[in-house]
Every structure is written in structure tokens, then in C-alpha cells.
Amino acid sequence: MTTLRTPGPTLGVVGGGQLGRMLAEAAAPLGVEVVVLDPTPDCPAAPVARDQIVADFDDETGIRELAARADALTFEIELADQDVLERVAEDSGTPVHPDPATLETIHDKLVQKRALEEAGVPVPPFRAVEDADDIRDAIDDYGAPVMLKARTGGYDGRGNVPVESKADAVEALESVAGPAMVESFVDFEREISVIAVKGDGETAAFPIGENVHEDEILRETIVPAGSDEAVERRALEVAEDVLEVMDGRGVYGIELFETTGGEVLLNEIAPRPHNSGHWTIEGAQSSQFEQHARAVLGWPLAATDLRSPTVSVNLLGDVAESRDAELRNVDRILETPAANLHWYGKRQVRPLRKMGHVTIAGREGETPDELLETARELERSVTFTSE
Amino acid sequence: MTTLRTPGPTLGVVGGGQLGRMLAEAAAPLGVEVVVLDPTPDCPAAPVARDQIVADFDDETGIRELAARADALTFEIELADQDVLERVAEDSGTPVHPDPATLETIHDKLVQKRALEEAGVPVPPFRAVEDADDIRDAIDDYGAPVMLKARTGGYDGRGNVPVESKADAVEALESVAGPAMVESFVDFEREISVIAVKGDGETAAFPIGENVHEDEILRETIVPAGSDEAVERRALEVAEDVLEVMDGRGVYGIELFETTGGEVLLNEIAPRPHNSGHWTIEGAQSSQFEQHARAVLGWPLAATDLRSPTVSVNLLGDVAESRDAELRNVDRILETPAANLHWYGKRQVRPLRKMGHVTIAGREGETPDELLETARELERSVTFTSE
Q: Considering B184, B206, B233, which residue would you say is the last residue of a domain?
């Protein structure tokens, strides 16, 4: 039986960006303290967390210090080093969730896809790429275009290159520069995601959200998604199968394609709270961040019901080059009923950098389409540029 | 127009108890930083706030340091010293909200009642008490019993003494020990409260809540209250009139009696977020804490709509004497769908001390009565005692 004390349990988090910050915000009401490790002094999570250890994500000394101060370790970035985490967990006795082995599986997209396919998770046809011939073979088998992907280090669409014809194979492979894989291009109706949680002997999932990307970066998430019930059910089944493959407790962001034929195919997995789950803070009975804290500590999971139609929109850096972050004209957001502002506390804005988000939790009678329209207006009304 | 930067504006808060803690939790998503001043090292707000200044609530040096670090000052306890705050605000140029003059008006219940009566706010009949004869006169005029109240320093019903007959007047007056006033005893149908906000040229109010007290300490708040529409409307009118009397921006907790005749009478005012408004965190489109941060900074106020029927229940110290705080059997709370735990981070539990609260935000089809029953079960299922 869980007993609350003061101070409460401490979560040690590798990474102190916006995910660490929102995790600390969600942990506080539960009496759970957060210490983050991040190389940037006074990182986004620092003002909200109990403390920050300033060290690189793979700095073993820093992570040992983090483990010594924490009851459980977790990470909010895939850049965490699985070997270091494994070693520290073993030596310190402080558990790490999700399991570092999961990080390893996910880190290499080819390994990830193979593990998932083996477990019966539906994935687009794919193959390893050793040379340009493999890409040409893929075009023969799947039809053009195909999607060439860097096996490691991709993020927000970086490292993904569509290949339109066999003639482009060599150039595409050079642009990826490193181990690669190739996938059939999915003709999708919409992109959706499931925020799923693996707890201590139980699992949970939030209702599916529909994701709108532009330049391969998430712009908006809409809940409920426009999918029909059968697709939602199938997406939740797939998420359940994905959790079976994942080792260790925590929240997983599972990005899926809903094909034009109504099939559900896996796109990518993040072994942590995910941008497409920020809507849960206001839109669901509990947030993905509270669930992650509960799961990592081995506490019971919370309810995941949708409270009302909800839309979240990212506030991205609309600048040509890096500069001090000053978001102008925020009044429209502050004045809009039921618009919830989340500012990530980053000092510098960069082109397309995620600087914050706005969630609108619908009030009676408001439809997702109306919310989306309002969210887009709000996003367009603010700017980081001086003019 | 408001511009967001990093670091964002800083609120300096006199007091770092649970109200300061929840204020810091609500301020973080807005990019607003909180520094608290509190004499207890590592006070409840400390782990969540940017920083704590360890100093007494009326320590002028400490408050000057707080003002120097803050863009605006506020307080979460009535123990704040109005003279010191006024002096520091004037010298530092850092504004204080609400105005310290409001603190002075509220601090003395007789002064408070006179100011409110003058402004047309309905209050129970009352008079100043110089000696026991004034109490006897009140019994003649209002009928027995009457309520004798200490003019200053009362809190959670401390300093309130019902006087059943003229023969008890002397003893009652001695027990109050200090300047006193006497009020007609109100035959109330229920106690209700309005959490009202005074912003920059605008006001807002949350839907009324029904409050259940026991031993003069708040146990539960239920929203919507059982009052009929006319009473709710009248309560919101009264709250609007109260805000007229109050000087300076911020949240005010306005406790009211709904009489058996359907009248609304003012009971007490807190110039700060109030225990009976904790339900707003999950139950309303914005929380009283977010509203307080917005109001003090002069930002636009947020929407106050009720999201779904909501009940909050306090977790009070169920111990006979002070000891290290260990709340046992928390699993029932963690496992209950839509139950939200708030742990205040106090190291010591004392008899009836407020240690945390649980809010249940109703899901579709759940009635306030069902939520209240669940909330009471949860409250009974946890304990600070060892057995």
C-alpha cells in the first residue's frame, strides 16, 4: 500500500526540456519531486523541478548522482544513453523505466520495425538498406515513391527522405549519410496517435488523437480524431500489442497511419510522453505526464477518459535565425475562453523550435472543427519576429 | 500587449504554504515564476517555486528582498503585515495586489463588516463589543444564541464563540480575550462561497460551491451547489458588490450563508485563493490559482465555466498530537477514476491540520451526490495514524 510522506518520492529525469518541465508540473500535486539532468544551465524544467544536475545526457558521473538522489530514473529524450543507464541502474539499485533495452530497440528504426513486425504489429513493408540497389528493389516491390529513413538519430522528420524514382536512389542515400532503411510510402487518410501507458501489471490508453504535420513537424492534435469507431478500436489494439513489445513501465507515444483503406499501420514510437499527448493535460481525466510519473513509480494508473473535445496547437519558432525568445501579442490567447497557454521557458527561439503550445478544451456545444479553427487563429496571432 | 520571455515575470508571494504551492503549480505553464517568503525552511511551496526566502511574514528586510526579485507582490496568508507591505511597495516600486489597505479592512472583522454594510452588502446584524452588556443587548435585539467573534486573528473558526444566554456573556467574552464583535446567529440552509476575481478593469467569478464544515473547519465543497438559480444569481451579485469594496487585483474567497428564507448573507472574506475554491483546478476551465496569477500581473482573466460536477474533500490531520506526516493507504485514492490527489508537502501532521485534498471531477452521468459519497469514502480510507 502506498504511503505519502514529505519529502515524497523523487523522480530522476534525464533531460530537462519541456517534457521534463510538464512532468514536474504534473508530479507536484502528487507530492512527487523531480530532479532533472540537462547540459543547459537553468533548462526549461529547472524553475519547476526541485533541482537540476548540469551534465550531458550521457555523463555517467552526473547520472550516478541523479540515481543517488532518486527513487526511480526515467528519461524524456531518446538521446539518453542506454548503456550508461543500464550500468547505473545495476550499480545503484535505482530502477530505470522504461527499460534501457527498450530505448535500444526504439533507437534503431530497423531494429524497432523488426521487433514490432515479429510481435504482429502491422507495419508498412520495409527492408534494410545497404546500398542504392536495395532502394531500387524496394521501388520494384512497393512502387514509387518509397520513404528512405536514417536508422538512428531521426527526429521531427529529420532523416526521412522520399525517393521518387530509381534514378534518385544514390543521391537520396548520400543525403541520409549513415545506416538506413526503406519503407513503402503509406497512402494515409490521416495520422493518428495513441498515448499508451504501461503500469505495474496494468495498461491504459488515452482516446486517439488526430495529428496534423507540416514540414514533418507536428502542428495540431485534435481529439476526438475524425476516425470511425472501428479504426479507433483497431488503433487501441495495435497500441496494446506495441506495449507488449516494450520493456519497462511508462508512457509511450505511438504514432500511427490510418490508411485510405481504413487499416492502421505503425509509424513511430517514442518511449516517453509525446507532443501529440499534450492535450491530455486539460482534455482528459489525467494527463500523460501524471500517468508517466505514476507508472515509473509503480503507482496505480489514473482514468484516461476524454473530458470534452480538445485541440492543441504548437507554438513554433517563426524566425529565420536564432534570437532571444520574445513571443508577442499573447493577449489574444490569454483572452480566449478555455485557451490554455503552455510556455516552455526556452531562452532562445530557433526556426521551427517548439516554444510552447496552446490547448483549447471545448465547452458545451463546441465541435472539434470550431476548436481547430480558433486554435489556428491563435497560433497565427502571435509571433517571435519584431514586426 | 503582453509579451512572453524567458525568464517570465516573477510573482513574489508572502507565505509558502499550500496556497503558495498551488499558485506556483498554476503559474508554471504560463511561464510565470514564483518566489515565496516563509519562515519554515523548505516550506510546502519551496520544491515547486523558483526559490524561497526564509524569513518571517512581517520581516521587512526579507520582504524588501522579495520585492527586489519580483515584478509584483502578493500574499497567501492574512498574517502578512499591511504596513510593511505598503512601505516596501512604495519604496521599491513593486506593486502589491490585493492592496494592503484591503488586508487592513479584512483583518478586523468589525471594520470589514462595517465597510461591507456601507456598500450595501447584506450582512447579519452585528455590533461592536466593549463589555458583556453589549452581548446581552445583542441577545435582546437579535434573540439567542448570538455569535461572539474575535475581531482579529480568527481562522478556521478559531475565535468564534456561540453565546446561548445572557448568563454566559462574561465567560464568553473572557474566552475571546481581545477586541470582539457580536453577530446575530444565522439560521442557514447551507453555506456557500463564491471565488471571485478582480482583474485589470474586469471581474470574473466561478460558479458557487456548497461548503460542508465540521468543527468550523471546511471538509467538502460541492459544485454545483444545491441552491436554486435565484440564490446563485444573488450570490454572484453580492460577490460583485464585495469586489467593489476591495482594493487591488486578485482572487477573493467570499463565504456566504444561504438562509432558510433563501436570502444570501455575507459570512467572511479571504483576500486570496480559498480552500473552497480548490475544486476549480480540475472542475473549471481555469483555476483560482491561475486567475490569481493573471490578476496580480494585470493579465486578462480566463474562463470560469464549470466543466463537470465536482467535489473536493480535505485531508485533515486525524491524529491526537503532532508527528511526522505519513498518509497511509493512498492506493484507494490513486485507483479511483477521476480522483485527483493534492499533497501539500508538510512534514508534520497536527490535529485537523490541512495536509492535502482530493478532487473528483465527475464523468458523464455522475451526480454531485454520488461524487460526494465517493469523496467521503476516500477520505475515510486514508489515515495518518499507525493502526
A: B184
Could you tell me if A140 and A233 lie in one domain? Answer: no
CATH number at residue B65: 3.40.50.20
Q: Which of B163, B184, B205 corresponds to the end of one domain?
A: B184
Looking at CA atoms only, how far is residue B340 from chain A in angstroms?
Answer: 8
Can you tell me the distance from the alpha carbon of A135 to that of A150, in angstroms, rounded to the nearest whole number?
A: 13
Closest CA of chain B from A311, distance in Å: 14
Confidence of residue B177 (pLDDT cuts 50, 70, 90): confident
A-chain CB neighbours of B325 within 8 Å are: 4-6
pLDDT per residue over B111-164, tens digit each? 999 999 999 999 999 999 999 999 999 999 999 999 999 998 766 667 889 999
Count of structural domains, chain A: 3
A167, with CB counted inside 10 A (0-12, 13-18, 19+), is: exposed
CB–CB of A30 and B331 under 8 A?
A: no
B337/A285 touch (CB, cutoff 8 Å), yes or no: yes
- Rounded to an integer, the average pLDDT of A229-251 is 97
d(CA A252, CA A194): 8
Residue A237 and residue A287 in one domain: yes
Share of chain B above pLDDT 70, in %: 98
Please give the radius of gyration of chain B, using alpha carbons only, rounded to the nearest integer. 21
Preferred mutation among A5, A48, A278, A350 to probe B, highest tally of B CBs within 10 A: A48
Q: Nearest CA of chain B to the CA of A180: how many Å?
A: 39
Residues of A in contact with B50 (CB under 8 A): 47
DSSP string, B76-90: SSTTS-HHHHHHHHH
Is residue B274 part of an annotated ligand binding site? no
- Taking the CB of residue B2, how many other CB atoms lie within 10 A of it? 18
Report whether B149 belongs to an annotated binding site: yes
Residue A295's pLDDT is what?
A: 98
Whether residue B193 sits in one domain with residue B80: no
ipTM of the complex as predicted: 0.95
- Domain that residue A64 falls in: 10-96
Residue B357 pLDDT level (bands cut at 50, 70, 90): very high
What pLDDT score does B78 carry?
80
The answer to whether position A113 is within a domain reads: no
